[in-house]
Structures are given as C-alpha cells and as structure tokens.
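Can anyone check this?
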Amino acid sequence: MSSTSKPLPRPEPVRYLLFSASLRTASLNARLAVLAQQAIAAHKGTADPAAMRDFDCSSYSQEDQAKGFPPGAEALRRRLEANDAFVIAAPEYNGSMPGALKNVIDWVSRFKPQPFNGRHALLLSASPSMAGGNRGLWALRVPLEHLGVRVYPDMFSLAQAHQAFDAQGQLANAQLAARLDQTIAGFMDLAEAAKHYPCAKTAWVEFLDEA
C-alpha cells in the first residue's frame, strides 16, 4: 500500500437492543441480561440496554389502536429501529412467554412499516426450574418468526438460576459461562455479517436449510 493510500473505513459497530422481559427489576432474567450486555461489550458490540417496564402497554385492541399507540409500543418501535438486532432474556410463565411481552409484540406489529421484519434476535431465559425456561422461548419464537425476525437457532436457557450466580453476579459454573459467551459471540458474528456483507441473507437461508 502506497504512502498516499487511505486506510479503509472501519465498519460501524453493530447495535443490540437488550432487555429482560420481566417487569421485576431484580429478576433472574434481569441478571442474565446484564451478563449478556457484558459479553456484547467484550466482543466489541454496542449494547442498548432497556427494561420491560419501558415497553409495558395496556391490552391490545383495535379500538384502542384507532385512538393512537401507547407510549410503550412507541418506545419499543423506536428502539428496534435504532438497533440492528435485539436480545431478550425472557422468563417462562405457565409454559409460555410473559403476557406483557406478547402484548407489546402485538402492539408493535401494527406499525407500518413493521419494525421486527428482517432483524436478528437472540433469546435467553433463566428459571429456577430444571428446564431453565426453555419452553417459553420456543413459544416466543413463533410470533417473532411470523413477523420476519431471524431468530438465532441456538437459544440459552439457565436452569436452577436461583443458584447459578455468584456474589459478583457472574455465573458460578465456568462451563455455563463459556457456553453463554460462545452463544452470544456466534449470534454477533451472524448479525455483523447481515449488516456489513450482502451475502448474509443467502447464508442465513442456507443455515436454516430452506434453500
């Protein structure tokens, strides 16, 4: 490279909206979301942390929509559009997703253009149960994928989460900590490729064996 050559511009960092789907501030999923935020920062991503209470809405109805969208739905739409991808740490309620989360998804899906479409998402869960809230994540995939979200296949569910954190808020089990980090790193690689490389959409289709 000659002395007059200009260095190639560095690609913009990928931005990730990140929130726990629990309305309780000190929930296990809020603690897991903090670890995800730390991992995103460690892998050179830009995290945009939020809280479920930022997006909480009254129950969806078409009559209420005719009067205007609630502030929580407007807030989630803005944050989705300001970010390239999103990460949700969601508790499991009765074998499914939290009602508040499903409700705001229903609200936001009514915006035009619909802001979920084409965005990449990673789903996490933490639960005292042995399944770690995994059934709730499978339920959550359904509306998100229906709306065009590219949900990362490898989800992370933290079982017996009430015993999983040490005094510093980190995962006490080194193997679980490594798996969480690897899951987030793999998701970030895909989200970065989708933002910076035109071939990423084709790669995603082949990854899902939908070619």
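Reply from J.R.: I decoded it. Residues 34 and 84 are 19 Å apart (CA to CA).
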